[in-house]
Amino acid sequence: MRAWWLSLTLCTGVLAAFGQNQAPARPAKQEDRRPPSEKMAEKPFTFKRKVVQNTVTRYNYYYHAKLKLEAILKGINRERQDNYNVFLPFYPFTVEKLNLNTNDLDSVIQKASVAVQIHDPRGRWIDDCYLLVGKAYYYKGDWENASNTFKYINTTFAPKKKSEYNTVVGRSEDSRISVATREKEKSWFNRFNHKSARNEAFLWQARVFLEQKQYDEARSLLNILEGDPFFPKRLEGQLAEIQAYRFYKQGLYAETIDPLVKAIKKGNSGRDQKARMSFILGQLYASQGRLDSAMNAFRDVIAYKPDATIDFNARVQIARCNTKANGGSLEESIAALEGMLRKERFIPFRDAIYYNMAVLCANEQPERALEYLAKALKVESANMLQRTLTFKGIADIHYFRKDYAAAQRYYDSTAAVMGPEFEEAELVNTRKEALGDVVARTRLIRQEDSLQYIASLPPAMRDSLLSQQLNAIRTARTAPSEKEKGRKGNNTETNNNAFNPNFPSTSGYAPRTDEGSGDWYFYNPASKSTGYTEFKRRWGNRQLGDNWRRSQGAGVAFNAPVATNTETPAPGDVSAAIDRMPTDSLNTSALAANLPLTPEKLAESRNKQMDAWYELGKLYHDKLNDPREAIASYDSLLIRFPDNPRKAEILYSLYVWHDRLNHTQQAQRYKQMVLTQFSGTNYANILQFGLPKDEDKEKKQAVSMIYDSAYIAYLTGRYDTVFQLKKHADSTYGYSSLQPKWDLLEAMALIKTQSDSTGKAAIGAVIAKYPGEPAILGQANAIMDALNRKAEVTDYLSRLELRRDSTQAARVDENVTMRYPWQSPTPQFALDSARIAKAKADSLAAVAANLPPPPPPPPVTPYKLGDEKAAVPHFVVMYFNRVTKVLVDEAVTQFSKYNAEKHAGEQLETSSFVLTPTEIMVIIRLFPTEEKALTYFDEAVRSASTVIVPRIRPSEYKFFIISRENFILLNNTKDIEGYRKFFGNNYITE
Length: 990
Fold this sequence. Notes:
- The protein is mainly alpha-helical.
- A hairpin with a 2-residue loop joins strand 1 and strand 2.
- The model is unreliable at 1-29, 487-524, 548-567 and 804-832 (pLDDT under 50).
């Protein structure tokens, strides 16, 4: 065929040249810049032209692009190392994780695109070239371009009659929708005819939908094709395969079986893919409990004669199913696997055989399973995935046997060798970290028990025991370890290559000439990719480093567990401290220093144990999802320390955990203990009234309004009103989400009105009642600390002397951010007493009438102007109408930068000031005179929206200036609106 085409091309070229020489000269025409394909479409599509165009398009472009794509996919199939103990991926690759060389796929797209651009669009192989372009985009993960390409094929190459003006996709045939291109029935003559790529493009469009997780669109398209009377039978297998892929990708495993059986029977996806689908079918049957069908499916895998790995795993799955099937037995399956050990072709899988033997007997005979897993670790193998599974199998057995120390070590070994795509990597890392903490806490509890026991012994017996322990420690440190003896006996560096026959040869660096290329190995992307994949499959994910095989991590593939000590040491771990001490510093006095011989040290030791038991319960429940062990930990804590300070929280946690496990009787017992022993606490309130989030919106809003009134009453010194309003809220609405704030506010009012002892008792009750409220607890602890240090602070202030430096000019530089109402005497005004008395009477009347309290009376605004001739210090204030932290922080930052650039010599400071919980200002200080403050005010008003704070809308803020005396009054009265009115009436600005 190619020789015929060459002769035809030469003849055509000669004729063209001859015709060109004989043709008369023509006048120059304007250059036609249309694509060659458009020009060709205007020429008559004669038989000669049809043969030439179809042949050139097929063999010069489409054929080579197709070979290139097949080579890329063949390389993908060799890269993946599957875990056959879980459901296999439907295809031997995952598009999101292909990590392909985009240059290779771009060359496929380029070659196929050139064929479309320079050849006649009426050729038969144009649609096939478009299909190759769409496939290349699909494997690149470029879903948009892939989808557009397949849609273009389906619309442009849809069949139409010559009389039709536009192509119509879809028609009705016998009350059924048809979108496919009709093909002739299969016969001996037309089996070699070219088939339209449009029908296959529909299937690839459905695959794109699935990768984009557009399951509804994929289902609609596949259902239409399934009912299409003209959809070709040759593609029924591929259609069933994509239907199965859709169900499998969505986790609908029962629905996957029927289309998968059809895809295996009628599909033409190749021997390897059929073997893979048969293996998945066996897994699906096994998950549904249809063990006989599963074993038949795995036998079909073996019949396809696939690669050795899937063949071996199919035999293993047959042994597993036989254990559970009727008439099968564990010993029969074990014997079948032992028989595989004696066969030469299964030598590379000896570690996997031992692992599967352990899996079969792990539930009933865990000790026997551990023996098999130990044998698997001794097998020299480069299969890092199998190594990972073996380590995890040992860790799981120890974990379910509650041997957490051993489990932690083997989970650590698992994490050291597993790859990033290991299915259970998250579980392994979680258990490794959590078990490290569990082991550390358990060790601490036992250690403190031992220390307490030694401390309780008579002095003579204690000294004798410490001497024995000291001798044991010194002997252990001076004796050579077994590992060091082994190093002296053999030279591992010399014998390293002989020890491992799989060590890669480094004797030569000759260029690689395989894979159809004469390029040197490191210049050949395909060879580099293959070599990297093989190294990764054989040795796992390794960091770059010299002599990597001689490092500790390189021995993972052949030696026993390489667990590193990653468990978190608990605070106060005496054993760890002793291990860090040098041998010559160890003596009985150093060991005795850690014994709890005094009541203070004994109390400290017991507190360590209480904290460890408490943290153990949290670890078991929160990290390991093991509520039974968490319950056992808290039960032990209550038995050993019945009066621990966290008893309320522990009893509440035990109630919740028993309730989740449907232990009704135990849950009720702990609930009653919380209600009776800790009534009035936050935990008791939750058990009685439910969680605060369950309250309705109207109740929360009403309680919030009353609380705001009570808080304002506290700020204005009306403490009796605070007590009345709290009583009204409790009696009317009961427990609410604001209860912690109410109790703290009441305690603060008691401090103002009662003795110090009463105030301390009230704050102490809040601290004990709300240990789970960080904000309330922090504020209450701060108040308690201030009360405890009250006498000390009072004595310090009484002794403090302030002297004014008369040598310097008087300048007021007051830090307004530290100015609080109690730092200045409250100004006395004529109407204060009358208005306060009236407010008290109105609040009491509202409480008696069961009505919400009236809003507080407007404060008095006794602001005044200073002497214009005197140098009165002023502040410039930026007041926000809508309080948000973002606005305040933005303003402080930008004004600080602006002042540093424009007013560097004036030493202006910018800070935020909280006037009330809902009113925050930005203060720029200090201006020595009113005139300079007004000058800066005018500058700030002009430049704020464009230069200083352009990202804050002008409607969000206002400016004013205020003298130092007026600012002190404003801080006491909180009357921001009153001062703004005073400012507008008395100051003249631009």
